[in-house]
């Protein structure tokens, strides 16, 4: 049994903190955001923030995830190819939006802040991988994918090129590129029809 200790969070204060951290992130960028600025904008004390989050990176990541949770729904079109294509397209559109630019800022800052990198992996990367896993598992159950498919490796194959283009090459990410990437990857993972 998991017993929670201490007083529960004040919902209004939590909302104010998360909203303030997200708004500041978009306005001034991760590097310029401070716990002091978040506290001032949310009209709470720094102690309140530190009571709920261990550092700036954690509260900023929580604010970011709070704001974008509805932006990346899990599709269910009836076919795994269309589900993954829609999911990857939505992810690409998000990553190339102003909000998505925050991810690249956080990835960059995470190279110098291990706690921020861990928060990014836990709060953003892991949930996206679980979504992709869910989509691929549905495809396996429907017999659309190879039975011996390595799900984790397939996730890397499908989504890795998006981040590679975004973070390494700087090449464009539009809907037609995503369709080419997903179509090419599916050649290796789809169930062959006999």
From TrEMBL:
<dbReference type="GO" id="GO:0000976">
    <property type="term" value="F:transcription cis-regulatory region binding"/>
</dbReference>
<dbReference type="InterPro" id="IPR036271">
    <property type="entry name" value="Tet_transcr_reg_TetR-rel_C_sf"/>
</dbReference>
<dbReference type="Pfam" id="PF16859">
    <property type="entry name" value="TetR_C_11"/>
</dbReference>
<feature type="domain" description="HTH tetR-type">
    <location>
        <begin position="11"/>
        <end position="71"/>
    </location>
</feature>
<protein>
    <submittedName>
        <fullName>Transcriptional regulator, TetR family</fullName>
    </submittedName>
</protein>
<keyword id="KW-0238">DNA-binding</keyword>
<feature type="DNA-binding region" description="H-T-H motif">
    <location>
        <begin position="34"/>
        <end position="53"/>
    </location>
</feature>
<dbReference type="GO" id="GO:0003700">
    <property type="term" value="F:DNA-binding transcription factor activity"/>
</dbReference>
<dbReference type="InterPro" id="IPR001647">
    <property type="entry name" value="HTH_TetR"/>
</dbReference>
<dbReference type="Pfam" id="PF00440">
    <property type="entry name" value="TetR_N"/>
</dbReference>
<keyword id="KW-0805">Transcription regulation</keyword>
<dbReference type="InterPro" id="IPR009057">
    <property type="entry name" value="Homeodomain-like_sf"/>
</dbReference>
<dbReference type="InterPro" id="IPR011075">
    <property type="entry name" value="TetR_C"/>
</dbReference>
<keyword id="KW-0804">Transcription</keyword>
<dbReference type="InterPro" id="IPR050109">
    <property type="entry name" value="HTH-type_TetR-like_transc_reg"/>
</dbReference>
